[in-house]
Design a protein that fits this description.
Blueprint: H1 2-33, H2 39-51, H3 53-73, H4 80-125
Helix pairs in contact: 1-2, 1-3, 2-3, 2-4
This protein binds zinc ion (ZN).
Zinc ion (ZN) binds near residues 22, 25, 48, 54 and 55.
Length: about 130
């Protein structure tokens, strides 16, 4: 009996934790649309959106309202689903680019060293 009580309680708190997480993410939606989130928050936000259909739906609605109104004012045609998925893709790309930039710098350095070695060896041959 005691055990059953315990499992029930722990399951409840897990669901509550998820609800809290959703509340946090929902609050971030306007900031995400205005691009005001820092990188680690943005990553957290995007990861949650990919797993949580209710938050993704909320994002779609708010994105439609904010971005849709803006493009209507400009007289542009607006495709919500395409615009939103492109935006999400772009944000992921930015996050990945920032991380791989560091690796890229090393690659450039290695390439420069290789070129220098090649030029040196040419001189040695001549
Ligand atoms: Zn959620």
């Amino acid at each position: 009996m005691q055990f059953m009580k315990f499992t029930r309680k722990s399951r409840q708190s897990k669901a509550e934790q998820r609800k809290k997480e959703c509340k946090k993410v929902e609050k971030m939606i306007p900031q995400f649309i205005r691009d005001e989130l820092d990188d680690s928050t943005k990553k957290h936000f995007l990861e949650h959106i990919e797993e949580c259909s209710s938050c993704k739906e909320e994002l779609s609605i708010q994105y439609l309202v904010m971005a849709g109104m803006a493009s209507l004012e400009k007289g542009e045609a607006f495709d919500l689903n395409r615009a939103l998925s492109e935006r999400i893709e772009l944000e992921w790309k930015h996050l990945h680019t920032k991380r791989s930039l560091q690796n890229g710098l090393y690659a450039v350095e290695a390439g420069a060293m290789l070129a220098a070695a090649l030029i040196l060896s040419l001189f040695v041959v001549v």
